[in-house]
Every structure is written in C-alpha cells, then in structure tokens.
Design brief:
single chain; about 425 residues; mainly alpha; Serine Threonine Protein Phosphatase 5, Tetratricopeptide repeat; 3-stranded antiparallel sheet; about 75% helix; elongated
Length: about 425
C-alpha cells in the first residue's frame, strides 16, 4: 500500500514539474496574437514562479529560452506602455526585461542555439536607451544613487557583445552622480578609470541631410561612416573635459581631507594641463598654505599671462607681496594693475590704502619718539605723515563708494579723516547706520 501511495506522489510531482511549458505558451499567445499585455504579464510571472521552484536542468533548453525571451519582451511592453494601468503592473518591469534578455543570450550561447539571439540583441540598444533615460529622470529628481545605478547599468549593458560599445559618457555621468550623492569612493574609482582611458568627453555631431536635425554619434568612425554614406553632413567634434576630471578628484579629496592624494592629483593635473586656470589656482592654494610664496607668485604670473584681464590674480599677487613678503612697492604695482582693469575693485583699493596708512602710522611712531625740543623735525614728519594719509584718502573713498557695507573700509576711512582733521566727515561716517 505504501508503494502505491509513493507512486501516486511521484506522478503528481512529475505533473507539477511539467507545468511551465503551457503557461509560457499562453503568455506567447496573449502577447503575440492578442496583444494583451496584462494577461501575458500574468502568465509569464506565473511561469517564472514555476521555473524558479525547480532546477533549471529539469527544464528543456528550448522552453527556457522561450521563457527568457518572452520575459524580456513582455516586461519591456509593460515598462514602455503609455497606459498608466499597464505601466503600474510592475514598477520593476524594465529591470526584469533586461534580466530576461541577458539570461536568454547567455543560455543560447551555452547551448549553441540562436533562435532568439538576434531579436534579443536588437532589443539591447533600446533597453540601454530606456535605462539611460530613467537615469536622467532620477538625476532631475536628485535621486543620485538611482541615477548612478542606471548610468552604470547602461555603461555595462552597452559593453555587452550585443552592442559592443564602450560608452564613456555614461561612465562619466555615473561618476557625477556618485559625486553628487557623496558616494566618493565610487566616484574616485570611476574618475581614475576615465583618466586611464584618456577620456575626453568629446561629442561627435553631424546634421541629418533629410531632416536637418543634429545627431550625436557614439564615436568618430560612426559619424564619419554616416557622412560618407551622405546621410549626414557638416561633421563636428566638440569638447575636451579631461582637466575637469582632475578638478572633480581634487574636490573629492578636499571633501574627504585626503591631503596626500589632493596634492598628488593637483600636481599630475598641472603637469598634463598647464594652461588650465582652475588647476593652477588649486596649486596656488597649496603653495600659499605651505608658505611657498615664490612658487605662488610664479603661478600668479602664469595665470596673469594666460588671462591678463583677471583682476583677482593681480590682487592676490599684491596680497602676497604686501602681507607675506613685505615688498610694498611691488604690491602697490600689482594693485594698480588690478585697478587699471577695474577702477572700483574694492579689495585692491582698500589694501592699497593700508600700505599708506601703515606707512603714516610708522611716521607717527617716529614723531612720538622725538624729544620735546625737536620741534622742527616733528613738524617735518607731521607734514610727511599728512601727505601719506592724503594719498590713502582717495583709495578709501572709492572703496567706500564701491562697497558701502564693508566695516573695515569704513573704520579705515574714519581713521584717515581724523588724521587729516576732517572731523565733520569722520563724525558723519560714524553716525551712519550699520
């Protein structure tokens, strides 16, 4: 009696193991014959439950291939549907579609079959574009991790032999998302990879002869091929963002307080892109922090040579010369260069005035050190001091006009007014509201 029961159990089990084939067929009929996405989705999900509940070795490879292909096809129809109800059937349909096609290609490669391979490969580029679009939407919503995942997935997907493309733009996008989401190690790894790949971020464009629209091509050969076929015209090559990759790494090392890599990356970037102003400024900050003022001045001179109208570079040069090296005449000359570009540049006006005020105050110390009977020397120094304060005055007046809220300028101007015995002006300035 026990043997009979056991035999019956085995028969029942065998019947259950064999159920996926008709369910897959029902899914195929629903999608291909009836265009019924909802029903097809129900069938393919049911088939998946059955298949995941048994060893794959128990399923015929042709049935498994059909399942994978239609899992990809049906789920893609769900994800791409403009019908809100259909799209809501599975928010993860796009990922499931990709998984179906990936498993299909792997299976048919292993079995030597190619029944569905061509159709699946054709779908890969469409899937890559949709996943990239989803990443762009996530970026717009500031969902950095989701955007990073999708851009990385697109990059990896395009590397599949079905597409055979190394889309470094997607990799760069993933790095930006990782950086924005403070996933700093992921961003560092990608940026370093891009440097090793000599990624330029160059865009290849050409105009569609028929429509007049400008299209972007994945590579220069692809663009040139279409131009040669006379389907496109006016080829264009734009951009080179290699230096900005170094800038991004520098930013991350600064945020993570990795001083060693920060300095090393700046040095490497400067060696490769000596004309890049942002990298030059970053190196300048290191020299300044390390009190390597001669190197800092050399950097500033290079920056000025690259951009002679950059008022800030002249100002920074003046500050180093004035405050660190005490080369006051050279500092005044640097400030004057800045003021030739922008006569109302408040910081240059103020720092120029400080040189004269400090000089006048030094004269005041000499006056105070004189004996009471040195009247003639005192008056000579007093006249000299007044002349220096008088020189400082227009700088401060213009600085005050340029930046009336700067308290340092206001206090210095009041000091000069008092030194020149312009007490009414000093009082009026003191009574002005803060």
């Amino acid at each position: 009696m026990k043997k009979i029961i056991l035999f019956a159990s085995l028969v029942l089990s065998t019947a259950m193991w064999a159920q996926e084939k008709p369910i897959i067929s029902s899914a195929v009929i629903a999608i291909d014959r009836n265009n019924d996405v909802k029903t097809a989705k129900e069938y393919i999900d049911e088939a998946e439950k059955i298949i995941t509940g048994k060893p794959l070795s128990e399923i015929k490879s042709k049935d498994l291939a059909k399942f994978y292909f239609y899992k990809g096809k049906i789920n893609y129809r769900v994800s791409a549907s403009e019908d809100v109800a259909i799209k809501a059937l599975d928010p993860n349909a796009l990922n499931k579609s990709l998984a179906g096609y990936e498993n299909l290609l792997k299976l048919e490669k292993e079995t030597g079959s190619d029944r569905y391979t061509k159709d699946a490969q054709d779908q890969f580029q469409i899937l890559a574009n949709d996943i990239a679009r989803r990443g762009i939407e996530a970026n717009g919503d500031k969902r950095w991790k989701d955007a990073y995942d999708d851009f990385m997935k697109t990059y990896e997907l395009k590397q599949n032999p079905a597409i055979g493309l190394t889309d470094t733009n997607m990799l760069f996008n993933a790095a930006i998302m990782a950086q924005s989401g403070e996933m700093y190690q992921e961003a560092i790894d990608i940026y370093k990879n891009l440097i090793d790949m000599n990624y330029k971020g160059v865009t290849f464009k050409a105009v569609n002869v028929e429509t007049g629209d400008t299209a972007i091509f994945p590579s220069k050969p692809a663009m040139e091929r279409m131009v040669k076929l006379e389907k496109f015209k006016d080829p264009m090559i734009e951009g080179d963002i290699r230096a900005s990759v170094y800038q991004s790494l520098i930013y991350i090392y600064s945020k993570t307080e990795d001083k060693e890599n920060y300095a090393a990356t700046i040095a490497e970037g400067r060696a490769k892109f000596p004309e890049n102003t942002a990298l030059l400024k970053a190196e300048l900050q290191i020299f300044f922090d390390n009190k390597e003022y001669d190197k800092a001045l050399a950097n500033l001179d290079q920056a000025i040579a690259q951009d002679p109208e950059n008022v800030v570079m002249y100002y920074n040069k003046g500050v180093i010369l004035q405050t660190e090296l005490k080369r006051l005449d050279a500092a005044i000359e640097a400030y004057q260069k800045a003021l030739e570009i922008d006569s109302m540049y408040s910081d240059a006006l103020y720092m120029s005035s400080i040189i004269f005020i400090d000089s006048a105050n030094a004269i005041g110390k000499k006056m105070n050190a004189l004996p009471l009977n040195a009247t003639s020397k005192y008056k000579a120094l007093e006249k000299e001091q007044k002349a220096v304060f008088t020189t400082a005055l227009p700088y401060l007046q213009k600085a005050r006009e340029s930046n009336p809220t700067d308290s340092q300028v206001k206090n210095a101007l009041m000091q000069v007014y008092r030194a020149l015995k312009m007490y009414d002006k000093a009082k009026a300035l003191a009574e002005e509201p803060q």
